[in-house]
From TrEMBL:
<keyword id="KW-0560">Oxidoreductase</keyword>
<dbReference type="InterPro" id="IPR006076">
    <property type="entry name" value="FAD-dep_OxRdtase"/>
</dbReference>
<dbReference type="GO" id="GO:0016491">
    <property type="term" value="F:oxidoreductase activity"/>
</dbReference>
<dbReference type="InterPro" id="IPR036188">
    <property type="entry name" value="FAD/NAD-bd_sf"/>
</dbReference>
<dbReference type="Pfam" id="PF01266">
    <property type="entry name" value="DAO"/>
</dbReference>
<dbReference type="GO" id="GO:0005737">
    <property type="term" value="C:cytoplasm"/>
</dbReference>
<feature type="domain" description="FAD dependent oxidoreductase">
    <location>
        <begin position="31"/>
        <end position="393"/>
    </location>
</feature>
<protein>
    <submittedName>
        <fullName>Glycine/D-amino acid oxidase-like deaminating enzyme</fullName>
    </submittedName>
</protein>
Length: 468
């Protein structure tokens, strides 16, 4: 692979030439060796190096920094973790408040580093709008979610309901019935963030090797075709690519997410749509749709993709016509005004899904391996928290970061929950996703019978329950 710009709109927009850094061609020694130059690997390097500048840190990347999900995502930088409510629920109220505050602070922490290090990545903290649109059940779903959030102690300042007229001041969506708004989210240009971070850690003294695929690794060492690293600590930071690593693959499923982007839209169209402050938006369907307005005035819109039998990674992200048509249809249902807008870019990527759909940050002190992942499509912010947490774990510090319910401060990788063997994984995952697609289709038909709507929702809800 060398046509890096074709990977995503974001890489295509970069001004820099994308010349790969030198590969690993020797035997080197390091204190910490990191596999993968995505956000997780680079944030870990950043927080380690800024707190312990004497450490020799190397990052070994198969392609170029930002090749993976970090150069392809939807650019939502969220102040939460996937399914954090389940983990927070188990905590006493005081501790829960501290954990929530830690999560809500993620976009601000990233903003502070960007400012300090001069990384320009179109960061705008406009919050996120979870819209109730397309069918009335979305409003009920979001309001039930709001009740659950309140029970967790989330205040009006964290999540608040916007009626349709209030929403319309920020975003005009067809048939909107309101939205759940949270200020704890920023939008970014993903490739600018990951490439900016790579340059930043290099300036701090971290060595990056690109086009250096790690062929095998074990505690204390890794090997590529051209060289090897002997290290004290090893950090595999490969998220969706864990499927290719026998030690990690039972614990992390590679799932796709796919996006489309319009051409730059006119000021007139944006006056109709809104999103003037860099808000992220989605609607409350189980298809997991998400979008943002880019700094050059495109609309980027994505939805969840599939899983391949045996955890086979998808390499070719030239979307087929059905994949594009589904996303375009979902986008036009929300924004009919975009009917004539040209779709200029389509792309996708692999993300990592942990068995209980909860991220983990783990430290195996005996083997001296640390890892963070299983973000399940919500890793832009989570990887920053992961990098900070791994740095503290590796430095042997007992901090607020290391005392969270998603952290396993002393555990081996094989203690992570395992996915069922094939064909159960494939059958199970696809049955769940198909029930979501079916539900969405039935609910979006305004005149479908009440019993059909209830049945579709019941089935999808049951399947969602199985995921936990
Ligand atoms: C299409 C899409 C949209 C998304 N949208 C959002 C969003 O809007 N908000 C959000 O929070 N999250 C989103 N996510 C998830 C988020 O992008 C990821 O969770 C996050 O980028 C993970 O970062 P990472 O560094 O852990 O992994 P990656 O960015 O995938 O980096 C892993 C790196 O490891 C390298 N690698 C793999 N194997 C090897 C090897 N053997 N040797 C050396 N290097 C190797 C890869 O080349 C890659 O560069 C999205 C993901 C996708 C795919």
């Amino acid at each position: 692979m060398s046509d890096w710009r074709s990977i995503s709109l974001w890489l295509d927009q970069l001004e820099e030439p994308l010349t790969p850094r030198a590969p690993l061609t020797a035997e080197v020694d390091a204190d910490v060796a990191i596999i993968g130059a995505g956000y997780t690997g680079l944030w870990t390097a950043y927080y380690l190096k800024t707190q312990a500048p004497q450490l020799r840190i190397v990052v070994v990347e198969a392609e170029i920094a930002g090749f993976g999900a970090s150069g392809r995502n939807g650019g939502w930088l969220m102040g939460n973790l996937l399914n954090d409510e389940r983990m927070l629920h188990r905590l006493p109220a005081g501790q829960r408040a501290a954990s929530s505050a830690l999560l809500h602070d993620i976009p601000d922490e990233v903003g502070r580093v960007l400012e300090r290090q001069g990384i320009a990545c179109d960061y705008r903290k406009g919050g996120v709008l979870y819209c109730a649109a397309r069918y009335p059940e979305q409003r009920l779903r979001l309001q039930a979610q709001l009740v659950a959030l309140r029970e967790l102690g989330q205040s009006e300042a964290d999540y608040r309901w916007l009626e349709a007229d209030e929403l319309a001041r920020q975003l005009r969506v067809q048939d909107a019935e309101g939205a759940l708004f949270s200020p704890h989210c920023a939008t970014i240009q993903p490739a600018r963030l990951v490439r900016g971070l790579a340059a930043c850690v290099e300036r701090l003294g971290v060595t990056l090797y690109e086009q250096s695929r790690v062929l095998d690794w074990q505690p204390g060492q890794l090997r590529t075709a051209g060289g090897s690293v002997r290290c004290d600590w090893l950090v595999p930071a490969v998220e969706g690519y864990a499927a290719r690593m026998p030690a990690l693959s039972p614990h992390q499923l590679p799932v796709q997410s796919l996006l489309i982007a319009t051409e730059p839209l006119t000021p007139g169209i944006w006056n109709e749509i809104g999103l003037a402050r860099g808000q992220a938006f989605s609607e409350a369907s189980r298809q997991v749709t998400y979008g943002q307005r880019t700094s050059d005035d495109r609309l980027v819109f994505g939805a969840r993709g599939g899983y391949r039998f045996g955890g086979r990674l998808r390499e070719n992200f030239q979307l087929n016509s059905d994949e594009v048509a589904l996303r375009r249809r979902l986008m036009l249902d929300l924004f009919p005004i975009l009917k004539a807008a040209e779709i200029t870019h389509t792309w996708g990527g692999n993300l990592g899904m942990a068995r209980r759909f909860q991220p983990h940050m783990l430290c195996d002190r005996q083997q001296r391996i640390a890892l963070s992942g299983g973000y399940g499509g919500e890793g832009v912010g989570a990887s920053n928290l992961g990098g900070r947490t791994l740095a503290d774990l590796i430095l042997g510090r007992d901090t607020l970061l290391t005392r969270q319910p998603w952290v396993l401060p002393q555990a081996a990788i094989d203690q992570l929950p395992r996915w069922e063997p094939e064909p159960l994984r494939w059958l199970g995952y696809n049955a769940i996703i198909n029930s979501f697609v079916h539900e969405d289709r039935v609910l979006a038909q305004r005149h479908s019978a009440t019993w059909r709507r209830r049945l579709a929702m019941g089935m999808a809800g049951f399947m969602e329950g199985l995921m936990r």
